[in-house]
Design a protein that fits this description.
40% of the residues lie in helices and 17% in strands. It has 9 helices and 12 strands. The strands form 4 sheets. It has a 6-stranded parallel sheet, with helices on both faces. It has a two-stranded parallel sheet with strand order 6-9. A two-stranded parallel sheet has the order 7-12. Strand 3, helix 3 and strand 4 form a beta-alpha-beta unit. Helix 3 runs parallel beside helix 4 and helix 5 packs across helix 7. The longest helix is centred in the first third of the chain and has 22 residues. The relative contact order is 0.16.
């Protein structure tokens, strides 16, 4: 199987390429230098030259707050919506599988019920809206599609919440972290294995994929420092206090409820990811703090 992966310089694209190699598949990794997804001609040229059996589309604009800036909105849409549609159109022509990575931000984040894959989508911010538009493009053009919504992502190859906490913990004794947004952290190493499992099948549709278990960002931060202190005593001095989203304003509105139902994974024979605490433990050892 030949698989083209977009966004290989990012956390997830990097791990997906490694997983494909482990299984003996031909992975073709591209980033903006090799294929500018916002340029339809570039997308058509690369995809038609490589003729992949599947595309795993990881590339995206993910700077959520920056996306709210007036002068950035069209750029964000160009990447997340138009870029995705450019890929979807060529996948339609080539009749190949397309797996699109989406986000919990397509939902309005209200209530406490876990979001089902087929729930109505009402994004709260520009990032969520443009990822939703990307979903619509995939659904419009591609027959053999997987839409996989993920949340709270961390991986070895890039910036993420864990690295931010560890960096702050080196210079500060006390931190405040939001306690009224609930979700599930997701380790790209675990996720990449699931994504490759998926493209080996024809079990198309919308899915949710995160590591198992729920927490707030505050609880996540507490666990990061608890585990990190075992590896490096410098982190044992750090204390964390909970604050509300109102006390910690951001440009982009965040969903308070990022709980996502993963029953569809089980129903279709896919293995659930390990607990987020287990994933965190393996990650901290991997980055050798």
């Amino acid at each position: 199987m030949k698989v083209l992966v977009t966004g290989v310089k990012g956390q997830l694209g990097h791990d997906v390429m490694n997983e494909l190699a482990k299984r003996g598949y031909e992975g073709i990794g591209v980033d903006i230098d090799e294929m500018d997804i916002t340029d339809a001609a570039s997308v058509e040229k690369v995809l038609k030259e490589t003729t992949p059996d599947a595309v795993i589309h990881c590339a995206a604009w993910t700077a959520v707050d920056l996306a709210e800036d007036e002068d950035k909105i069209e750029k964000v849409r160009l990447v997340n919506a138009v870029g995705t549609e450019n890929i979807a159109k060529v996948c339609h022509e080539l009749d190949c599988k397309m797996l699109y990575l989406s986000t919990d931000y397509v939902f309005d984040g209200q209530g406490t019920r876990p979001w089902e894959p087929d729930d109505e989508r009402h994004p709260l911010n520009v990032y969520g809206q443009t990822k939703y538009e990307g979903e619509l493009a995939v659904e419009k053009w591609v027959k053999k599609f997987f839409i996989v919504r993920i949340a709270w992502v961390f991986g070895v190859n890039g910036k993420n919440f864990i690295r931010t906490m560890l960096n702050l913990g080196k210079t500060r004794d006390h931190l405040t972290v939001v306690n009224d947004q609930i979700g599930s952290p997701t380790y790209t190493y675990d996720l990449s294995r699931l994504l490759v499992d998926m493209i080996e099948t024809e079990k198309y549709g919308r899915y949710h994929a995160t590591n198992e278990g729920l927490c707030s960002w505050y609880e996540f931060a507490c666990e990061i420092f608890r585990q990190a202190a075992k590896l490096d005593p410098v982190y044992s001095k750090v204390t964390v206090s909970p604050v509300s989203s109102e006390e910690y304003p951001a440009k982009a509105k965040r969903p308070s409820n990022s709980r996502m139902s993963k029953e569809k994974l089980t129903e279709n024979g896919f293995a659930l990811l390990p607990s987020w605490q287990d994933a965190l433990s393996r990650y901290l050892r991997e980055i050798e703090i």
